[in-house]
Design goal:
Order of helices and strands: EEEEEHEHEHEHEEHEHHEH
Number of strands: 12
Strand content: 25-35%
Strand order of the largest sheet: 6-10-9-8
Mean pLDDT: 90
Radius of gyration: 18 Å
Distance between the termini: 34 Å
Length: about 220
């Protein structure tokens, strides 16, 4: 079976042909959604203060204190979440959650999203982009993906912001399960701090390219 591992901006793959293994370097696409997913769900990550995160993990839904009328950002990249929350050590982000949501909901959000910044050539003009952004129930940012030391890669990681209708659907309809992965985050961080990157790598969630065609993302990057 082919093996692959990420290295800098390329994927290193071993391919067997006529019983001979060949090393093939494949460049990472700059814009690509990588996630842990099943046939029906995709896992995204968020980090909250314990008063939100702990009840959410216990009950499988967000508590009343969670505000549906504010934009909430979900990240399919575990390591980008670790960069954002400092491995669950930043104030207000001490509880790290793996939120399993329906792929149908995730793809609805992508289809209805607007890029969070104006980009010449992608948008007809700045005024049209502003109107689209104001109406959109979701917005997308592409930020540098991170390695185990939280250093940036050249390729990008998806951040998906949900507001209005999308935030309500996320909280009330799309969530399948909520898991507290704070301890896992701390364990991986300990391996990294001790220089055991191999041990840390083995504990990472298995993320792979998410099966969405280029046309579905054409409005979100050039």
């Amino acid at each position: 079976m082919p093996e692959a591992r990420r290295h800098a901006a390329v994927i290193i793959r071993w391919r067997a042909r006529n019983s001979v293994s060949t090393l093939v370097l494949v460049a990472e696409p700059k814009y690509q959604i990588r996630a842990q997913y099943t046939d029906s769900t995709v896992t995204v990550y968020q980090a909250y203060a314990p008063e939100i995160g702990l009840p959410a993990a216990r009950d499988g839904l967000f508590p009343a204190v969670w505000q549906r009328d504010r934009m909430t950002w979900i990240k399919p990249s575990f390591l980008w979440m670790m960069y954002r929350c400092g491995w669950g050590t930043k104030e207000g982000q001490e509880t790290v959650l793996a939120v399993e949501i329906t792929r149908e909901g995730f793809e609805w959000a992508l289809a209805h999203a607007c890029l969070s910044h104006y980009e010449r050539g992608l948008h007809a003009d700045r005024a049209i982009w502003k109107r689209q952004l104001k109406r959109a129930p979701a917005r997308v940012q592409w930020d540098p993906e991170r390695d185990l030391r939280l250093q940036p890669y050249p390729h990008r990681s998806l951040q998906l912001g949900l507001t209005g209708e999308a935030a309500h659907l996320y909280a009330d309809e799309w969530i399948v399960s909520v898991t507290d992965i704070t301890r896992l985050s701390h364990t991986i961080h300990t391996h990294v701090r001790e220089g055991d990157l191999g041990g840390a790598q083995q504990l990472l969630p298995h993320e792979r390219p998410y099966p969405v065609n280029d046309k579905s993302l054409a409005h979100l990057h050039q």
